[in-house]
Amino acid sequence: MAKEEPPEVASADPDVDWGEAAQYPAFSALMSTKIRFLVPLIVISVGFYLGVTVLAGLAPAFTGQLVIGPLNVGYLLVFATYIVTWVAALVYVRVANRDFDAKAADAISELEEREAQRKEGE
Amino acid sequence: MRALTVVIFLVILSITLGITYWAARRTRTTSEFYAAGRSLRAHENGLALAGDWMSAAAFLGFTGLVALYGLDGSLYAAAALVAFLVVLLLIAEPLRNTGKYTMADVIAYRMQRPQARLAAVLGTIVVNLAYLLPQMAGGGVLVKLLLGIPYSVSVVFVGLAMIVYVAFGGMLATTWVQIVKAVLLMTAAIVVLVWILALFSFNPLGIFSAAEARYGPEFLAPGNYLKHPLDPLSLGLSFAFGLAGLPHVMIRFYTVPDAKTARGSIIWVMFVAGAFFLITTFMGLAAAYFVGHKDILAADPGGNLALPLLAQYLGGGPGSLGGQVFLAAISAVAFATILAVVAALTLATSGAIAHDLYVNVIKHGHVDEQTQVRVARLSTFVVGALAIVLGLLVQGLNVAVLVILAIAVAASSNFPIIFLSLFWRRFNTWGVIGGITVGLISSVALALIGPVFMGEAAIFPIVNPTIVSMPLGFAGAVLGTLLGGRGGEEEKRFDEVLFRAHTGAGAEL
């Protein structure tokens, strides 16, 4: 197959060995933190909503039961979906701003340092 | 009273044209045309995202569905919020870090093969046209209804307006038209909500009690609209993952300076649009109680006029001065909504044609800056003209199926290839082609033999094809990848894509 022109990237260095870069400790630390945090968060938050839809589809009698005054189980779960979704988003942004961004910056500086060292060595 | 409507329309039109004039003077480079110079702030992009996502289908459609079917309509609206969580957690930041102007850029960045870009362009154009047509038709009907001019003239009018916004003002004009529209829409929704709550002595549960008193508790139970047991889940999957495959929404993340701002803008849209989606439940139930199913259905079998009718009721009822003022105001907001969304879709489609097809596939990236902008503007005229012609052709057809189709195709073919490009090491060009083809064909085919298109005689029982077509799209992508074999360039590039997607190293500035 034909090859597309390589993308022009601002601070790209064509000689970087990315396979090696992906193994650097700072980047590995970033990725493992992200995976440990994101996987459960997605499963819980998106899973909550999908669970509500499964319940509405497969257990309509239960979902339609009135619980608090005029509100049925379904509406309580719909309102809970809004809360769960908003809370999950805020939690993510808080952790990302505090932790992920700093780790990403570390990964970039480690890459730059090692590249500088490699160039000196040549 | 028509005079008042005309005045409101003209005000909206002159504000948006003023924005376009202002933006046109700031739109000279390619990055300015497609991405507003990547200079938007979080709240600006967040409000514009809200504008993109609160389409007429949400504004009028969700309210109408709640008014006619209770809980099922509210499940729809909640799905629209959850969608942004998927985008926030998985897609937005990597997209900002690896793409340039279009959705296909992300795929091409990983694969670096024109075939992969072409497949992504196909997904972009099909989704955008399927999304654009119902909006054009809806805009045509709305203008016809309000100004009394023929449908064909209205469609041409809507089409010309969107061409002017995009061709001259690019992403900056599109963004500010979206922001104005989002603010108008939120204001309208809040006014209506407070008005309704006042009638129930500010007890939100009173609205539920009233709706139940009139139609019985079954009205608020599930299953009134989503008949098949798997309908709610399929709908949820479609919305939750489809948004991440909608090109006109995804390109908004290129308009901000970095991933952190992209993140911040999603918080804005989640609270603004989320609050709006929540309000549609209250507006819908109030419409059911005050206007009644009979009149809502008489005005439009799909329930799309429930909100305008509610506004008319709140203003004092049909024939009263207040009722007419309210009706005119809500309809004008709906008109602004349609204009803004069609502009965004036109921009995303022009980008696929000018940037992806012409500049990258045909010219291999060797096009100077001035020509790129000229081609982008030119393709805006072509896309706009095409949209007008298609809008004229679909007059009188039921285009509701296209709304479902747009989001189902996005979830079944675009989402899998974006997701796998970013997260699967072995994914390759053949996988992109397999994912797009299988996702596209299966979602279109299943929608065509489904209940929206075939009614009672439907062969496939679920309204939304996504529960089947999204797994098929993923399967097509995996199968294509395996057939493509191991050890290709694409596999070697995974580490670079991963590093850049998650750190922002070398991201477009």
Description of the molecule:
The complex is a heterodimer of chains A (122) and B (509). Chain A has 122 residues and is mainly alpha-helical. Chain A contains 4 helices and 2 strands. Chain A has a two-stranded antiparallel sheet. In chain A, helix 2 (25-58) packs antiparallel against helix 4 (73-121). Chain A starts with 17 loop residues before the first helix and ends with a helix. The model of chain A is unreliable at 6-11 (pLDDT under 50). The longest helix of chain B is centred in the middle third of the chain and has 49 residues, at 151-199. The model of chain B has no long low-confidence stretch (mean pLDDT 92). Chains A and B meet through helix 1, helix 2, strand 2 and helix 4 of A and helix 5, helix 6, helix 7, helix 9 and helix 10 of B.
Q: How many strand elements of chain B?
A: 0
Amount of beta strand of chain A: under 5%
N→C terminal distance of chain A: 35 Å
Global structural class of chain B: mainly alpha
Structural class given helices, strands, pairing of chain A?
mainly alpha
Strand order of the largest sheet of chain A: 1-2
**Total E-strand runs of chain A:** 2
Shape by Cα distribution of chain B: globular
Q: Level of helix content of chain B?
A: over 70%
SS summary, helix count of chain A:
4
**Major pleated sheet of chain A:** 2 strands, antiparallel
Largest interface: A-B, 62 and 75 residues
Question: Please, how many helices of chain B?
Answer: 22
Uncertain stretches of chain A: 6-11
Quaternary structure: heterodimer
CA-based shape of chain A:
elongated
* Global mean pLDDT of chain A: 89
Give me the strand/helix succession of chain B.
HHHHHHHHHHHHHHHHHHHHHH
The ordered H/E elements of chain A are: HHHEEH
- For the termini of chain B, the CA-CA separation is 50 Å
